[in-house]
Amino acid sequence: MVGQRGPATGWREGDSSTALLQMFGQLLRLPFVALAYGLDALARVVRDSREVVIAAVPAPFADDRQERAGANEDGSATPPDDRSQRVRCPRGQEGEPMRDQDLSGQDLKLVRYKILFTKRDHEHAFQEQETIVSYPTTATDFAGLKVAEFMCDLDEEERPQLWIDKQYPKEAHQTGSNTIRDIPPSDRKYIKIYFEVLARYEKEDEDSQTQLLREISNKIA
After folding, report:
1. Which of 13, 87, 202, 205 gives 20 to 30 Å between its CA and that of 68?
2. How far apart are CA 22 and CA 33, in angstroms?
3. To which H or E segment does residue 111 belong?
C-alpha cells in the first residue's frame, strides 16, 4: 500500500516520540545538575579557605576553645592564666597610681598634705605635713579647712627665698618682715592643696569609763 513502510525500515512513530521526551527531560535536568555541582564546588572552596585562615593565625589565637577547656592538643593541661589574680592599681593620666582621697568612713585616716602656690614666677610648695582624720568628711571640706588654717598662720610662715627676691608680697617687703603676713586677695586663687590618704586604721573601742562619761555628757546636753 502506498505511503506505508514495512517492518524492514526499523522506524516507528512511537519510538520517535519516546526519544524526544527523553531528550527534553535531559535538557530540563541540566540546570539542576549544574547547580548541584556548583554548590559542591563552593562548599569545598569555603572549607579549604577556612583551613588556610586558621593555619595563618598565630597559635595563641587560632583556637581559644582549647584554652577555655584547659587542655592542649596533646592532652596536657594548660597552665591557668593568673592575670585575674594580679593586683591592678588604678592609674592616673600619666600612668602613675591615683591618689587615695576618700575621706568618708568612720575609720582613722593618716593624711599627708601640702599647700602649693601656683602663681607664675612665684611658684612654691610649702612644708609637707601629716594629720589624722578621725571623722567622715569630703575632699572639698578637708581642702577648705587646711587652706583656712594656712591663711590664719601666715604671720608664722616664713617667706620663701624666691618671694624675697621678687619682693613679694608687697606689704611684707615694705615692712621688712621675714614672714608672709598676708597674701593679696587677688592672688589667693593660686593657693592649692595636694593631699592623699597614706593609711587607714580601725578605731579602738572605748574603755568603759570613757564610754560612761560620753553617755553622761550626751544626756546632760
Report:
1. 87
2. 16
3. strand 108-117
